[in-house]
Amino acid sequence: MANLFYAAFVPGFQDYIAELVKERLADAAIKKLLEGAILFETECTYDKLNFFCFNNIFAVIDVLENAAKDKALEAHIRKTLGKPSSIISENNSKIRSFRIIFSIENKPSAVNEAAKQEAENFISHASGLKIDRSNPDTEFWYLYRREGFSLFMKRLTRHASFEKSLHPGELSPQLAWLLCRLSNPKHTDTVIDPFCGYGSIPGQRIKYFPLKKFYAFDIDKAPLAFAKKKITAKQPCEIKQADIYSIFDVLPRGEADAIITDPPWGMFRETEIPLQKFYDDMVGIFSRLLKAGGLAVVLTAKQEEFRQAVDKTPAFSLIRTIPVLVSGKKAAVFVLENHFV
Fold first, then answer.
1. Domain count, the chain
2. Do 196 and 228 sit in the same domain of this protein?
3. Considering the entire predicted model, what is its pTM?
4. Are residues 137 and 18 in the same domain?
5. For the sheet containing 237-241, what is the strand order?
6. What does the pLDDT read at residue 268?
7. 292 and 241 within one domain
8. What positions does the domain Ribosomal RNA large subunit methyltransferase K/L-like methyltransferase occupy (predicted)?
C-alpha cells in the first residue's frame, strides 16, 4: 500500500531534497515539489523513512485541489467528514488526545466554530481519541498552500519550535544535517568546523555520518561549553577555543577532507576586522587546510563578500550554490572544491 507524506524543510533546498528522496526511496513518486516542502508517495512506512533533513513529516489523508483561499479549509472539512481513514483510526497506545491545526500559507487561521467542532467530533469518533486543544499527544492539520491546494494530514513528528529553543545564531539540527550531507561524507574523513558555535554541525556529522576525526573550533567560551556538553569525550571530536588565524597551530596544512561551517555574518557576532578582509583571509585559510579534492560547505548571508573571497582564491572552484532562507534571512550554501595543496 502506498503512503502519501508531506514533509517540511529549510526553504531553498527543494532540488537537493528531491535528489535525496529519489536516492533513498527507489519507488518514491514526487507529487509536488514546493518551496520548503515536498509531497511524495512511497511503499515505505514512516518508521523506516529515516530522513533527518525534515523539520516535520505528516501522513496525508486527503488533498483538495484548486481550492479558493478564503473557502479552502471549511470546504476541505466538508469533503473529509465521515470518510474512513486508517491514518485517523490507527494510533499507538501512547496517543490518547489530539487537536486540529488550521493553517493558511503557513500562518495559523481561524475557521467557523461549528465546522471546527464537526471536524473534531468526526476525528474523535473515528480514532477514539479525546479532544485537547492545549496539550495534545498528536495533531491533525488542515493546511492551505499558496499554490492553490489544501491538505488534510496527521502530524507524525513532534519537534519543539526551534525559534524558541535555539540560541541566537545556532543552526537547527535539520539544517546542520543538510550541510553535512552536502560534503559527500565518508567514514575516513577528517572534518573541520572553524566556527562551531553551539556544536550543531559537529553534532550532526558525528551522529549520522561515521568519520575518522572532527575538529571543532570557536573563539567564544560560552558556546564552546555548550558544544562540549552536547558532544561526549568518547566521540571522535576535538573541541578547542581558537580563532581562524590560529588553526595552523593545531592542524597541519592539507589535513582536512571537508570543512563544514557557518562563519560570522556580522549579525549575531561581529568580526574585529572588516568583513570582506575577514572572508578573504578565511577562504584562503580553508584552501590551505583542505586536501586536494576536499570540499568546503559554507553557509552565509554575506553572499557577495563570500563570492569575492572565492574569486580571489584560485585553489577553489564553486561547484554548487543553494539560496536558502534561515530564520527569515536570505542566505546561501556554497560548496567549494579545492584543487591545490
1. 2
2. yes
3. 0.93
4. yes
5. 237-241, 213-218, 190-193, 256-261, 290-300, 329-338, 316-326
6. 45
7. yes
8. 166-313
